[in-house]
Amino acid sequence: MKHPKVTVIGSINGDISFAVDKFPMANETILAKGSALCMGGKGLNQAIAAARAGAQTTMIGCVGTDSIGDKAIAYAKDNGLDLAGLKRVSHTMTGTAGILVNNAGENMIVVSTGANACLTTDDLHTHADLITGADIVITQLEIPADTVRAALNIAAKARVRTLFNPAPATPEAADLIAYADIISPNESETHIITGIYPHDETSASQAARALCALGAKDVLITMGEAGYYVFSQGQSEYFTAFKVNAVDPTGAGDVFNGVLAKVLAGHGSLSDAARFASAAAALSVLRAGAEGAAPDWSQIQDFLTQNATV
Ligand SMILES: Nc1ncnc2c1ncn2[C@@H]1O[C@H](COP(=O)(O)OP(=O)(O)O)[C@@H](O)[C@H]1O
Ligand SMILES: [Mg+2]
What we know:
The chain is α/β, with parallel strands linked by helices. It has one domain (5-20, 33-306): Ribokinase (UDP-N-acetylmuramoyl-L-alanine:D-glutamate ligase). It is 36% helix and 25% strand. It contains eleven helices and 13 strands. The strands form two sheets. The chain has a nine-stranded mixed β-sheet, with helices on both faces. Strands 3-2-6-7 form a four-stranded mixed β-sheet. It is globular. It starts with a strand and ends with a helix. The mean pLDDT is 95. Magnesium ion binds at residues 186, 224, 249, 253.
């Protein structure tokens, strides 16, 4: 069987997290209980979710020449990603996030965009064949908005389907949604873009209409454990999430988008693809951390068989 081809244009980060009893005060030094370096960034997370689900996945992104960049490359290769579109820059560090998590489970996060900011429209023109040769292209907003716009335009000219996850919802998000075939904001991104906070079928339907008024074509709004709402080719439908004992919701949306792209690339309908994506995301929240949380295709299928009546 031919593997569907997914190309992801997006961010690559190293997340350095520290477990602390309590957050430090200004000018205070404290000891952490432990620390971990995990690879992430929405682009890399979504690419890995698509690859584990069985897509032939290519990543266009940018890292530094530092050791975090080396680690990200090794992690991407271990997961079978094609890195033909990867750029390395020496003047800026790989994107990083510093995360503190206290005993109450609260967090404090600082993100440095780093090398992700160096992915330019020229880079996309250099690697246009990786976009035009794909079955579907996914992109998000942890790279420059101009780069996202160029990616969506190159794909549209070649009639390659595009999935735009407008996350995080930067000020440019609203202007970009008209360029994509499908958009997939979560509830807070939908709120920032439309002013409507979707939490059930009625509010999601209002928000979807507001997104269409901004030029969106097909819309998929994810609402965490409240499920998701699909508006496609004039038809709308609300779906509940699978009921699982969530351990860590971090990265659920990334797994959802990666698997959604894989199934769409194989020419599934948006609601069919969303069911596989929802199963994969439910499996991912059973596992701690975003790295390694994405399931493979047989795990997704087994989960759907076991939950066939849900
Ligand atoms: N606690 C959960 N239980 C079951 N499914 C979940 C849970 N959290 C998320 N999901 C699934 O993952 C999808 C994406 O999660 P969401 O929280 O909306 O994205 P993000 O991670 O971007 O905030 C949801 O629509 C749902 O299908
Ligand atoms: Mg969420």
